[in-house]
Amino acid sequence: MLLAIRNFIQVHRVVSSEQLSREFRVAAEALSPMLEIWVNKGVVRKANSKSCGSSCQSCHTKQINYYEWI
Amino acid sequence: MIKRVLLVGNPNCGKTTLFNALTASRQKVGNWPGVTIEKKAGWYSRSGKTIEIIDLPGVYSLGLPDQVSAKDAQITAQILASDDIDLIINLVDACHLERHLYLTSQLLELGKPVVVALNMMDLASQAGVRVDAQSLSQRLNCPVVTLQAHRQIGLEHLDQHICGKQATLPSELAINTYLPSKVLQYLQTVQQNMSNYYPKCGANTLYYAYRWMEQSSPPDHSSAGAPIHDLDVIMADARYQMVHSWVANVLSKCNDSKEQFTAKLDRILLHRYWGLPLFFALMYVVFFLAIGVGGAVQSGFDIVSQALFMQAPAWLMIQWHAPSWLIQLSAFGVGQACHTLVTFIPVLATMYFLLAFLEASGYMARVAFIMDRVMRSLGLPGQAFVPMIIGFGCNVPAILAARTLQTERERFLTVLMNPYMSCSARLAIYAVFVAAFFPHKGYQIIFSLYLLGIGMAVLTGYLARRTFLSGQSSPLILELPTYHCPTFLRLSKEAGLRLRYFLVRAGKVILPLCLVLSLLSIDLTSRYSALFAYIGQWIMPIFSPMGIHADNWPAVISLMTGMLAKEVVIGTLDNLYSQMTNVSQGWQAVMPVDFWLMCQQAVLSIYEHLQTLFGGSVQQADGAAIGTLPEKLCQHFGSSMAAYAYLLFILLYIPCVSTMAAIRQEATRRLMWFSIVWSMGLAYGTAVLFYQIATWVAPMQPMIMYRIGGGLLLVLVLWTGLHLLKQGGQRALGNS
After folding, report:
1. Which candidate from B98, B262, B482 shows the least CB-CB separation from A26?
2. What is the pLDDT of residue B526?
3. Which of B160, B444, B478, B621 has minimal CB crowding within 10 Å?
């Protein structure tokens, strides 16, 4: 599971936790300790989403975590 | 006989709530992790027995007591390592089963009796999660009870285990089946030497061997054999796999099938090579429906609205012997503006509805993702496309959205590229022109214009990147939502809202402009109206290489008014053409309006267009009804090639005033001027080149334009494909 997640991020370069959650059918909160392992090992980097600042509501207001291959 | 019971679990899973419920004490509880930071003991009395209950600080996983750095985790690890424990109650949050079972799997290796208490069952069922406790019990080889600790529901089941005689020991877990043989051999060696490595381990060497191998910093014990790279990851991976297999079998979610469907569909729609062609195919279908079906309805709207807003007021005014300025103002000012706006409705409404479907279904977010791959292969930021692709609406918010980009270079690139994406205003112009010149395959023409716009945006970005905006682009960060089927009502509401926004915005520009134009043209012998014709004819030689003839000066004036807002191009054209016609025919030519006949004509026109669209026989020679704008366009532009060249110019020439202001605000004044000059040059060059080539080759073969277009598209696809392959190859070589 951990290794498969690492490979998935390597292929897609940047993935959101929800994308991983869907791909591996694992709840997002169960994924976070696994991703933490790779973050601590310096394999991936965590980034947060930003809103575009407009009021058109097209951006999600909820905070989404992204993981980027280093 | 059970005398001492431990409450163990992840932080914030309700241990202290259960502790208070069992011991009737009032320890502080809170809905956040880390409320308990030291062990607390209480007494549980039932049927003459008194049992000590110990509440431990929450931990996510277990380690060797000496190796754990956090104080609370150290307390838990030390107490769990002691021998005088009769029962461990492992509290598990049913809402977060997978995360919590990781600790459970480690607890079961302790070799002590464990009861798993599934807490927060009510919240889990509210969240649409169902846990099969019996099946979980079989897989864990230990009793599992369900609880709602805060409501004290299910405590009686737990009581049976606490007050039971002797709890049974769990049998060994199947984690070894997930470990590679090399690691299994290493595990055996470590287990045999465990008392040397960790003297406090006692008899349960397997538990400590697992913990020893799970340490993130590899211990240096050469006696265990050659060190295994990333041993801690392999160990954790095996445990996560085991836990995942349990959860997959015992947990069911209401929205699980939706998630699976999304993952499957993404494998097709986000395919590395098929993703982009599939996007183009889908957009082709969208244009077919919007322009084909919407355009068919538009022909009917055009007939009825012209009769209602222009002919009827003009006829009535003549009957009432109204002065000519009033006829001009009502019929060619207000009436013309209303007519122009009404004709936009069918195509835009259909387009907005279909785009709303693509957005709400979750596909549009993926388009940005697909485009990002192409863009990055060219060294351009994928973010530049996100707002326009998602919105396909207006260039102004797209340019404002450039603020989210991290570097100034990427912001400038986005600002430069966005004006070439076809906005709603341009779609409205295309729709009227294709109704006139390409009544049967209009959607293909508009599709080609959209593709060309994307191509020009990429070309502009690419050239800028190769010259004055060089550098690397950061990757696209975009959330991909789950696919779902939106309701018809929701899509209609969304399309309605956008349509209203467009009509109000366009109306604010079109109405005053039509009024001004009609006022200035009250007397065509006046110098104001002659001025239009003079200006138009004076600039005409510049535009004649792209097919605008001398008598078509309104087309040039429309380009000038279109700089204010592209919505007004059609309004201006219609107004000026109508006035030209009325001057030649005179007011007396305005006939009384038979609405019933007009409605019949409109329905017939819609029917004929639809019949043509779906391959039926064409009863009418051409789609343009007499007196409508398409007919006037055909009359003044002459050929479809001149019309297409004009559309190319409209697509690419100077962005509207609001877009210019947005560029100046988000970038610099210099970039705004660059954008204006570059787009003007690009528009003129493309339109002239197209018209000249088309007039040269068209007499030989009418279908050659399609072939040239198709050939160019093929070259573009092949070139992109080669670029992707090259990049993939370089990456593969880099990795190896």
Report:
1. B98
2. 54
3. B621
